Amino acid sequence: MEMFMVIRFFFHVQADFSCACGQFELKFHLRLTTSLRWCYLSRWLSMALKTLAKLSVFVAALLAVLARDHITAGLAGLSITYATEVTGLYIYLETYCQS
User: Structural domain tally of the chain?
Assistant: First the structure.
């Protein structure tokens, strides 16, 4: 701020700098607000994707338990493994969206 005072003193441009500072503060506030909203949105997306991934593994495990008389243990384990792989895909999607 001391630099602005020196320029104002030597060049007598008080009004121009006050206008420029106001525009700078407005743009800075807009940038800060947008950045904060992006942070909140990315955290919400992260939580939503992790919840969806956990839900898919839970549903796969629940269906494997409910259908234990009709499917083999290998097929039940394979379905839970594939659900876990989909969880990895969700996490990759999360990191891709955040960058």
Answer: 1
Residue 50 has pLDDT above 60, yes or no: yes
Higher pLDDT pick, 9 / 81: 81
Query: Six-digit token pair at 24?
Result: 């700078």
Model pTM greater than 0.90?
Answer: no
Q: What is the DSSP track for 55-75?
A: HHHHHHHHHHHHTTTTS-HHH
Q: DSSP labels for the chain?
A: -HHHHHHHHHH--HHHHHHHHHHHHHHHHHHHHHHHHHHHHHHHHHHHHHHHHHHHHHHHHHHHHHTTTTS-HHHHHHHHHHHHHHHHHHHHHHHHHH-
Give me the domain span that covers residue 58: 2-98
CB 87 within 8 A of CB 75: no
